[in-house]
Amino acid sequence: MKPVCGLFLIICQFLTASVSAQEIVWQKRYGTSTSELIKDVGCDQLGNWILGCTGTSAIIGDKTVGGYGSFDYWIIKIDSAGNILWQKDFGGIDVDILEK
User: What are the residues whose beta carbons fall under 8 Å from the beta carbon of 41, sequence distance 6 or more?
Assistant: First the structure.
């Protein structure tokens, strides 16, 4: 029974050592502070990120493309440092909510 207890303690020590806080490399907010929601995230082959958002149709903050209704799909491509490479709005004249 002792070998099982020793193995259990080793596994517990490994798990507690590997579950530690991660260092934040950078953080940014896109759009405004109230209306944008990131609904999906993907990565391309070059390490750039594509954010699928629902956002207000207005050109506000770093949202530089106008929309079509009150809320639209807002797609943003950012590089590995969080800089916006391009962005595009999709939607109609009413509320369009991006869902995964």
Answer: 49, 50, 51, 52
User: How far is Cα 53 from Cα 75, in angstroms, rounded to an integer?
Assistant: 6
Secondary structure of the chain in HEC code, one letter for each residue: CHHHHHHHHHHHHHHHHHCCCCCCCCCCCCCCCCCCEEEEEEECCCCCEEEEEEEECCCCCCCCCCCCCCEEEEEEEECCCCCEEEEEEECCCCECCCCC
What's the token pair of residue 67? 């929309």
pTM of the model: 0.68
Within 10 Å of residue 37's Cβ, how many Cβ atoms?
13
Asked whether the predicted pLDDT for residue 27 surpasses 90, the reply is no
Q: What is the mean pLDDT of residues 44-50?
A: 92
Tokens for 89, please give them.
Answer: 């709005």
